[in-house]
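Course assignment 3, question 2. Fill in each field.
Student: A.L.
Task: Predict the tertiary structure for the chain below.
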Amino acid sequence: MGFITSEALAETGYVVLDDHDQASDPAEWLDLTYIPWRSSGVTRFAPLASYAGEIECNGFWNQTPPRSDKDGVWVESQVAIAPTLQRRALESGAGVGRCRVIELQPNEYADAVYNLHQDDNNRLNEEGTGWVVRGYYNLSDDTDSLLLLRSDRFDPATEIRLPLRQGSRIIVDTQRFWHAVWHRGTAPRFALITSWTSGPELDAYIAANHGDPHPPTVDLDPRLVDDAQVELHRRIEERRRVFEAQGIVMEPRADLSV
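Answer field:
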């Protein structure tokens, strides 16, 4: 039977929408409650919608009873502080699962490459229903920072690099891509991340905001890319040895970073 997927994401797996005038919105994310949660780098999260409306970030499939990343419950204390961000998450008209603001500390390109990971948005998702994807809205002004997408974690030739200026809006099938952010800055990066359910509502939203499946990708110095690949494999081997010393055997090319 398969899943209901977004036609707009069928070709490349991602689209870049028109920028939002983020400067016209209040900086509500600064007053939210954040909790530590491991992601691609040194991160904290401020949940706006979670499994049961609590300030926690766990996958819905790890809860009781488990369910897919859909039908998130709004955290009343958080949306009272950030009603504009809630409206932004709801404006697509698509179903919302987890919704949170991420705070990411500055990092290096090699850190981002090592932290590339795939999401597991569709665990327990039933065939015949909408495929879950992620919307990224950059809240802070991080002109030099990049969202990295790879179809093959270990092949830099598959890497797509999308700039994260203030107000940039990107929708990605993050179960299809290995992804992480290289945050080149001196202050934390903030972004609104929403799990959206694919369907006609999301497609209409992408069309209305001129979703581009072929936006420009940023070029990098090949030496920087090569050095990051060497560091990626060095860190993986280092971690493999740590696990091995603990009696844990890791599969070759296993994802050890998340």
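Instructor remarks: The domain at 7-218 is CATH 2.60.120.330 (Jelly Rolls). Confidence is low (pLDDT under 50) at residues 252-258.
Grade: pending
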